[in-house]
Design goal:
312 residues; alpha/beta; 35% helix; Metallo-beta-lactamase, Chain A; five-stranded mixed β-sheet; binds zinc ion; six-stranded mixed β-sheet; single chain
């Protein structure tokens, strides 16, 4: 009898260990190489030769924040914290602005709360964002997930916003899920203004499609007048540490966070390409949308500016 109990216990332990390994650690490492995936020289070649046309600064407006375990953003990152930020980015020229990402609204932020002590939502910042979108020349999204689109899908003045939206087809297709009630026709009937190629959308701002985390995911490369170079990577990685360690999210996130699932192979290849890009270009600031600590550090260094400015 004891022998049977021991065998059953051993089998059970092995099954649990296997499940733990599969859900938390497996299939998370980037491949050894991802040649040709990101071509930095091609992006730079699209920049205007007259540097006075480039933007002068990049500003970040935090709408909300939270804290989650580090292993959610990077498989195996046990014992670390992931200080999550929900934000929007404003690119500033002397005569115009461009906004990237629509963050979350209060209802969505409350529904995603992870930490009772570290969660926060700033309603005034959300209002600043919806107003700044109407003053911007263009509004873009890194991708179509709920924590990046709410100030678009639930904007109080969709008719005024629509002409400013520069989205790709998968991003537009996702909007109806996030509407309260029926999506306003001004947003529902949007025509894609990005065609899935590497495109300069304004002087010094280039979008690079990277389907994987979602079909509509894209990187945004920005070069400033002072020569500073930035790469917004949306949610390709949730923390810079994930790129630095070539380790993506655990498989568990596929079951509890994403619906539909990510293209995991594509994301892992992109991590490798980003890692190689950073190694070859150490001055390029690579910015995952939710890495609160990294964004705070870039603000402290003066490379990013906190909060939005009224459009010129
Ligand atoms: Zn996402
Ligand atoms: Zn996100």
């Amino acid at each position: 009898m004891l022998r049977t109990i021991l065998i059953v216990a051993a089998v059970l332990a092995a099954v649990l260990a296997g499940a733990f390994w599969w859900l938390m650690l497996a299939d998370s490492k980037a491949p050894a190489e991802a040649p040709g995936l990101l071509s930095f020289e091609d992006w730079r070649a699209q920049l205007p030769s007259d540097t006075s046309q480039l933007p002068t600064e990049i500003r970040v407006l935090e709408i909300g924040r939270d804290k989650a375990p580090g292993f959610a953003a990077r498989a195996g990152g046990f014992g670390t914290d992931w200080n999550t930020t929900y934000n929007s980015v404003q690119i500033v020229w002397p005569d115009k602005t461009l906004i990237i990402d629509g963050a979350i609204d209060a209802e969505t932020a409350a529904g995603m709360k992870q930490s009772e002590t570290d969660w926060a939502f700033d309603p005034a910042a959300y209002d600043t964002l919806t107003a700044a979108m109407l003053a911007a020349d263009q509004v873009l999204l890194t991708h179509e997930h709920l924590d990046h689109v709410m100030a678009v899908a639930r904007h109080p003045d969709p008719e005024a916003l629509a002409p400013r939206l520069v989205l790709n087809a998968p991003q537009i297709a996702a909007m109806p899920i996030f509407a309260r009630g029926t999506l306003d026709p001004a947003i529902a009937d949007l025509v894609p203004r990005l065609d899935g190629s590497v495109q300069q959308v304004a002087p010094g701002v280039i979008v690079i499609p990277v389907p994987g985390h979602t079909p509509g995911s894209q990187l945004v490369y920005i070069r400033l007048q002072d020569g500073g170079e930035f790469l917004l990577i949306g949610d390709v990685a949730w923390s810079l540490g994930a790129v630095e360690t070539l380790t993506t999210r655990p498989v568990l996130t596929q079951y509890i966070v994403f619906d539909p699932n990510e293209d995991r192979s594509a994301v892992k290849a992109q991590l490798r390409a980003l890692y190689d890009l950073m190694a070859a270009n150490p001055d390029l600031a690579v910015i995952p949308a939710h890495d609160g600590d990294h964004i705070k550090a870039l603000i402290a260094e003066g490379r990013l500016t906190k909060g939005f400015t009224p459009a010129p």
